[in-house]
Predict the structure.
Amino acid sequence: MNEQYLSQVRVLSHENAKEASVAVRRQCFSVGQAIEFDSEAPLASALEYVLGALGADIVTGFKRLADRRGVAVDEVEALITGRLNNPLVYLGVVGEKGNPGLEHVSVKVFVSTFAPADTIEEVWQEVLRRSPLVCTFRRAVTLELNWKAAF
Amino acid sequence: MASLPLFPVTMVGSWPRTPALLRAQKQKRINKLSVDEFERLADAAIADLIRVQHELGIDIITDGEQRRDNFYSFVAEKLDGVRLMTLAEMLDIVEDKAGFEQILQTLDVPAYSLSNPTCVGRISRRRPLAVDELRFLKRTSDRPVKIPLPGPYLLTRAMFVAEVTRQAYPTKEALAEDVVAILRAEVADLIAEGVDFIQLDEPVLTEVAFNPGKTRTFMCASLAARGDPSEELEFARTLINQVVEGMSGPVFGVHVCRGNWSQNESILLEGNYQPLASCFHQLKIDQLVLEYATRRAGDLLHFPGKSLGLGVVNPRTPEVESVDAIVACVKKALTMYAPRELYLNPDCGFGTFSNSPVNQSDIAIAKMKAIVTASRRLRAEYEMEQS
Ligand SMILES: [Zn+2]
C-alpha cells in the first residue's frame, strides 16, 4: 500500500489512568479518558478530541478551499454536537442496553463572509466532498451538516 | 425641552440597519473602511430614519443607534483602556468557558460575532460617547431628541473581566468609580448640547434579580461572576444615582427589559418588576422605560413619583399590535398613572444587536405607526378631558 495513505500516531498510557499521551510527528499532546462527565476535568476527553478533529477538518478545509477559489471568508466556526447511543454502557451500569458509541453528530458551521450564498454553498459542498473525517463519519453515524452566514 | 403633548411616542433606541450599513460596519471593524466613510453612510441612514419618524409623527426622535454595533460595546471605540474582544478571544482568556458556551448556544451565534467591551487598562474618554450622535440629531430634526447610553452598572459588569481587568482595577467597585466619572462627563456634555431625554440602559438588572446564579443569557453583559442579588441591585442603584446626581435639564430615564435577542419568547426572562421595585423606588430619575407588551412582563406595577415609558408593542414579533390593544394597555396604566406621566414606546429596540436585529424595518414602521395612532386617539380623549 502507498505509504501516503497511512496515518499514524503513538499513544502511551500514563500513571494516571485518566490520561494518555499522544506522540505525533514532532509533538505530543495529552488526551483524557474516553468520555468525561466531570466538568472540572483538566483534559479534553477522547470523544471531545474526535468531535474537535471533525470540526477542525471542516473549518480548515473551508478556509483553504474558499481561499483557493478566491472567495473572501473572514471567519469560520463550527459547533459539533455528538449524541451517544448510551453512555451508561461505558460506565458499566448494570442492565443498560445498547452501545456507548456515537450515534448522531450534528455540525453547524458559521461563516462570516460577504460572498453570495450560492458561492458559499459551492465551497461547502466541496468541503464535504473533500473532508477525510466527514467522509469517515458519514459511514459511521447519522451526520447532520449545516452552514449559515453570520457576521 | 419644549413641552410635550400627552402620551408622547418614542423609540427605545435601536432600529434595524440596512444591509449596506451592516456591511460597512463590518468593513470598518476589519479596517477596510475608514471611520469617516462609515460615518457618512450612517449619516444618510439616520437622515432617512429621522424622516420616517417625522412622517410617522413620533414625538421624541432617536437615531436608531445606527452608528453603534450594539447598545453598549460601541464604547470601546471611544474609551481608552477598553478593547472590544470577541468571545472567540475571550474563550482563550477566561476560566469559565462553559458559561460562555451556554451563552453562545442560547443565542445560536458564533463566538466571533459577539464582542464585549473589555477593560484592559485605566479607562478614560478619548472621545465623547454620544455627543456626535446628538449633534447630528439636532441638526436634522427640530423635535425633542433622546440619547440612549449604556448604564453604569451594565458597563461596569460588562467591562470587568477579572482575568484582564485586575491589572488596572483590583475590583469592579474601583472600575465603577471611573465608569461613573466618564458617564457624568458625557451627561454634562449632552446637557450642554441641548439633549432632551437621556436614557440609561440597564437590561441586566432583570437577570440579576430574576435569575440569580442561573443561566447567563445576556450576551456578554453580565459575564463576570455575580454576587448576591440584593447587593448587586444596591450597587446598580448607587451607580445610577451617582451618574445623575446634580444633573438637570433633560428627562432622565432608565430602561430595563428582559432581553431582546431572540424571537423565541420562551427563552427570554419572565416575571414582573416586583423584585426590582425597591431599587426602582430609590432611583433619582424621572422615568422608567419598561416592557409591558408581553405576557412575560406580568402585571403592571405603579412606581410613584416617576413617569413611565410604557412598552406597548413587542419589538420581536411579525404581527403588528392593533391600535385597540395598545389603547387598552394604556388605559390600564391610566388606572395607576396620570395621563401626563405616560410615554408610549416599544418594549425595547428593534435592532439591539446590529448583526442580529429582532425585526425588519417595515414591520418596525408598522408597529410605530400603531403606537402613534393609539397615542393620537388617547390624546384627543384626554386633552379634552384636561382642558
Ligand atoms: Zn431593552
